[in-house]
């Protein structure tokens, strides 16, 4: 009723999705095992960085080219479209987005950049003393913990910060919705998962036979299954290669195909779906994937941020880390991720064999490695992308309560270590005060809670 709905595959969505696929491809290169990333949590800070780099600079050109935006949008148009996109994401039930920009107390932002950044993302920079790296790390970790419903704990360590750190952009996105039609746990079973020609492991599967959106795309050699989440515009699309060993080959083809076009072939039919119950937690340093996409200057002393700060401070991004987690079970899906940008100065069973036949068009059995995408059906924007391959020690079954406690414990343990290493009486006093009630994470940044900006 009067709300602006972005048409599927709008120009900006096309650009963002192309970047998402490119980033996924570069991230999986040479990487084994399960993976989940959230491209949108990288896209937003990269656009902010491009604004700060200044029009016509090599730094901005690299960023805009990687985002597929260099010929399609001016900064003014991009700012307007990005804000609208974020508003649409906000309206998506089950999504919670928060972002915060930390700037060294020694830097002064140019007013025009402050205006554009607020207009685009509605956040206000927070100045901070990076010389106290223990407290800064704890604040960032608390930010991730509190904005992912305590699913993600330690995103950054004090060793990744220094007195020369000038800027940290922290971004978090969380999604949790049950399936629109939950799986009956009585139908769950344990069966082998075909990892490769020599390795098979037993995992738990959830099973359902009902009407689902399904497609068999012969020219791509894959089958697709889409499952909606309850009262949400987000859906999860499973992409299963016909060849049990075909995932890596398919991933390499992503640059030559439009996987988002493939979802248009999805049609509702009766399908027997057999999908593993899994939990993936990925902690990925994004510097190398971004460099492979051509983004290099922002990680070097020649980075340009002339429209961000009032004078040349030799600011460059030193690290980009993303920690993401996804848990899939019969009841539904729980996803969370957070990103921090740091800127420094200067053999198979018979069940699996049936997958190779051509008659089982009504079965979708994920008994070997597959990809998945979480996207919005209103905008077609990719929110999460990843794969399940159960290589190495990927398999993990941790009850929700234990998992939540684990994330909190990770941060609290780090805080206790900081207490032991505190070098000054002032640091010890602050740390002891915050650790005294056994809930250091909640206390360490209590004074900052009102400043959290959530979309």
From TrEMBL:
Residues 408-433 are annotated as: Disordered. GO terms for cellular component: extracellular space. Pfam families: Serpin. Transmembrane segments: none annotated. Keywords: Protease inhibitor, Serine protease inhibitor. InterPro entries: Serpin_dom (IPR023796), Serpin_fam (IPR000215), Serpin_sf (IPR036186), Serpin_sf_1 (IPR042178), Serpin_sf_2 (IPR042185). GO terms for molecular function: serine-type endopeptidase inhibitor activity. Residues 415-424 have a biased composition (Acidic residues). Residues 21-391 form the Serpin domain. Gene3D superfamilies: Alpha-1-antitrypsin, domain 1, Antithrombin, subunit I, domain 2. PANTHER family: ACCESSORY GLAND PROTEIN ACP76A-RELATED, SERINE PROTEASE INHIBITOR, SERPIN. Belongs to the serpin family. This is Serpin domain-containing protein. It comes from Chironomus riparius.
């Amino acid at each position: 009723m009067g709300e602006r709905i972005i048409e599927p595959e709008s120009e900006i969505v096309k650009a963002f999705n192309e970047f998402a696929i490119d980033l996924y491809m570069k991230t999986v290169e040479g990487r084994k095992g399960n993976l989940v990333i959230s491209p949108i949590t990288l896209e937003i800070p990269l656009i902010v960085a491009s604004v700060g780099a200044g029009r016509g600079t090599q730094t901005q050109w690299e960023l805009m080219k990687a985002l597929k935006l260099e010929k399609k949008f001016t900064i003014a148009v991009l700012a307007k479209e990005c804000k609208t996109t974020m508003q649409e994401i906000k309206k998506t039930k089950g999504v919670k987005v928060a972002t915060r920009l930390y700037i060294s107390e020694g830097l002064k932002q140019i007013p025009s950049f402050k205006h554009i950044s607020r207009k685009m993302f509605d956040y206000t920079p927070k100045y901070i003393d990076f010389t106290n790296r223990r407290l800064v790390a704890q604040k960032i970790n608390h930010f991730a913990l509190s904005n992912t419903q305590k699913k993600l704990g330690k995103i950054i360590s004090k060793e990744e910060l220094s007195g020369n750190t000038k800027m940290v952009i922290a971004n978090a996105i969380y999604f949790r919705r049950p399936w629109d039609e939950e799986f009956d746990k009585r139908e769950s079973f344990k069966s082998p998962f075909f990892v490769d020609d020599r390795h098979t492991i037993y995992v738990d599967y959830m099973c359902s036979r009902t009407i689902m959106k399904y497609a068999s795309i012969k020219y791509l050699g894959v089958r697709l299954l889409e499952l909606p989440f309850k009262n949400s515009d987000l859906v999860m699309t499973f992409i299963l290669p016909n060849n049990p060993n075909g995932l890596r080959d398919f991933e390499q083809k992503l640059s030559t195909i439009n996987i988002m076009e493939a979802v248009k072939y999805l049609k509702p039919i009766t399908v027997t779906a057999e999908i593993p119950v899994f939990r993936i937690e990925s902690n990925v340093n994004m510097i190398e994937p971004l460099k492979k996409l051509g983004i290099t200057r922002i990680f070097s002393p020649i980075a340009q941020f002339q429209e961000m700060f009032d004078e040349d401070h030799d600011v460059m991004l030193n690290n980009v880390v993303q920690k993401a987690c996804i848990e899939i079970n019969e009841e539904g899906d729980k996803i969370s991720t957070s990103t921090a940008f740091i800127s420094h100065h200067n053999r198979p069973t018979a069940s699996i064999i049936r997958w190779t036949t051509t008659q089982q068009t009504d079965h979708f059995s994920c008994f070997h490695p597959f990809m998945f995408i979480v996207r919005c059906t209103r905008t077609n924007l990719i929110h999460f992308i990843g794969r399940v391959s159960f290589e190495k020690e990927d398999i993990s079954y941790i009850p929700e309560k234990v998992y939540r406690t684990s994330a909190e414990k990770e941060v609290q343990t780090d805080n206790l270590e900081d207490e032991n290493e505190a070098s000054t009486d002032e640091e010890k006093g602050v740390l002891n005060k915050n650790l005294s009630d056994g809930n250091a994470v909640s206390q360490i940044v209590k004074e900052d809670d009102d400043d959290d900006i959530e979309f």
